[in-house]
């Protein structure tokens, strides 16, 4: 299957071309099967108190060390830096559960329905760059894959309303097939949905969303002080926690401690 596969780590000129063309990259097998299994168990704990229905839980990094480690994973962070430069934040982290035998999700672009990113400019700017760690094997279609429409972040027209309301198929829909532990990195403007899941095991995916520093966090109103006190300098900085001496987000905004 044709996949925009790239190597972990440095963001190369070819990575940039692939990302600009399709709006996403796939880094295969970033986590070992054991690491992914540890994150899977952590995900189960996060979702333990809710119904077994599709749903997303934020801030898992505050209580689950294996999910905290993914915030600045060395296979992924250089790509985020390559796209955003030296100043960006973790805008949100969502841990998604799709129950066994779950159907397809609705097509959408990421952003804010309160003020759509496409009101800002064309093409839709890169405001939310998402790294999705696949915590289950998704080498075959029908395993709770993500489905993306390549290049759709540049489409001047929306996906037709009837396709969206019927959750219909699209001839250029790309069902991402990748082994456990792979990472999908994608632009907020790419139309995407959750693909169907025919398997017997609930599917969990750990999503990490990076943004310019002035974007408001979406998984928290405030940072958790205990987490900030105990985490690494890089993760502390990625939470957007810094002293604002005079002009917030001005020249005093320190680059990340790479
Ligand atoms: O199925 C998932 O894990 C992600 C769902 C989705 O499309 C989203 O969070 O925007």
Describe what this molecule looks like in 3D.
The chain is built from seven helices and nine strands; from the N terminus they run αβαβααβββαββββαα. It is globular, with a radius of gyration of 18 Å. With about 260 residues, the protein is α+β, with helices and mostly antiparallel strands. The model has no long low-confidence stretch (mean pLDDT about 95). It has a six-stranded antiparallel sheet. A three-stranded antiparallel sheet has the order 6-5-8, with no helix packed on it. Helices cover about 20% and strands about 20% of the residues. The chain has helices at about 15-20, 35-45, 65-70, 75-85, 160-165, 225-230, 235-240, and strands at about 25, 55-60, 90-100, 130-135, 145-150, 175, 185, 190-195, 205-210. The two termini are about 35 Å apart. It has a single domain (about 15-240), classed as Sandwich (Jelly Rolls), CATH 2.60.120.620. The longest helix has 15 residues, at about 35-45. 2-oxoglutaric acid binds next to strand 3 and strand 8. One of its GO terms (molecular function) is dioxygenase activity. Keywords: Dioxygenase, Oxidoreductase.
């Amino acid at each position: 299957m044709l996949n925009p596969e790239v190597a972990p780590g440095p963001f190369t000129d070819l990575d940039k071309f692939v990302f600009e063309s399709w709006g996403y990259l796939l880094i295969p097998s970033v986590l070992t099967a054991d690491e992914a299994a540890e994150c899977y168990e952590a995900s189960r704990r996060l979702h333990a108190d809710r119904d077994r229905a599709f749903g997303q839980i934020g801030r898992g990094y505050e209580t689950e060390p294996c999910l905290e480690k993914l915030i600045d994973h060395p296979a992924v962070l250089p790509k985020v830096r390559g796209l955003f430069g030296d100043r960006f934040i973790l805008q949100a982290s969502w841990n998604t559960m799709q129950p066994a035998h779950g159907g397809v999700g609705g097509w959408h672009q990421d952003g804010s329905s309160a003020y759509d990113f496409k009101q800002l400019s064309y093409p839709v700017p890169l405001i939310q760059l998402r790294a999705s760690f696949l915590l289950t094997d998704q080498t075959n279609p029908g395993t709770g894959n993500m489905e993306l429409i390549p290049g759709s972040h540049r489409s001047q027209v929306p996906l037709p309303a009837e396709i969206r309301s019927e959750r219909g198929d699209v001839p250029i829909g790309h069902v991402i097939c990748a082994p456990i532990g792979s990472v999908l990195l994608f632009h907020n403007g790419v139309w995407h949905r959750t693909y169907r899941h025919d398997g017997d095991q609930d599917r969990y995916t750990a999503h990490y969303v990076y943004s310019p520093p002035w974007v408001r966090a979406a998984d928290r109103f405030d940072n958790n002080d205990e987490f900030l006190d105990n985490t690494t300098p890089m993760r502390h900085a990625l939470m957007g926690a810094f002293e604002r001496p005079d002009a917030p987000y001005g020249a005093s905004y320190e680059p990340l401690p790479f």
